[in-house]
Amino acid sequence: MSKLEIIDLHVSIEDKEILKGVNLTLNTNEVHAIMGPNGTGKSTLSQAIMGNPAYEVTQGQVLLDGMNILELEVDERARKGLFMAVQYPSEISGVSNTTLMRTAMNAQRDTENQISIFDFLEKLDEKMALLDMPPSMAERYVNEGFSGGEKKRNEILQMLMIEPKFALLDEIDSGLDIDALQVVSKGINSLRGPKFGALIITHYQRLLNYVVPDFVHIMMDGRVVKSGDSQLALELEAKGYKEIAQENGIELIEE
Fold first, then answer.
1. CATH of 3-247, one of 3.30.9.10, 3.40.50.150, 3.40.50.10380, 3.40.50.300
2. H/E run at residue 46
3. Model's pTM, two decimal places?
4. pLDDT digit string, tens, across residues 194-204
5. Which residues form the ABC transporter domain (predicted)?
6. Is the dihedral of CA 33, 39, 41, 46 positive or negative?
């Protein structure tokens, strides 16, 4: 079992404080969901954990199995077992999906334990079939010319191939129709177990109907203000955030 601990995390962007003391602990074998109104710091949290240099950590720690990873570069954090899927994946012209995934997998292995091409292709075929992806997508350049749904499936495919300790899934459901949502959810659920944990950032309950979280956390004003089990997401769907905001003395900004 592995543990990811966020301790009193404060993060600023261009001298504006966004996270104001986030505390959260994730273990493998757990799926956590973070919900909250726009602008409350949900995506900032995932970006800061992964090491985006635009996000300045001014206080706190992020511990992965007891090691503070805040001084590590992004690629080092990935090699330690972190993976991030974002709302708008980048296109990488000239690099095929196959090349990217095999390189990423071997980066986590020592030189004597590199994955063979046979084992890689066997696993790739299996995971692409699980996600209903045509074989031709393996040789296409990363996300180039992909639809929104294809990009999301492609990110889940990368996650299934790499098998991280912890996946940070930032609005992975954004823009997906119901069929694509079910396929993406199937991919996430297939990894659930003692060697995998996930932090899912979402605005909506619908994803959580398919990937049922063990814990749900509500973020407002740059901090976690309430936590519970999957029932909490259902309550939010019915009641909204106003009551929780009032309980915590937070004024919601109407959009």
1. 3.40.50.300
2. helix 42-50
3. 0.92
4. 999 999 999 88
5. 4-246
6. positive
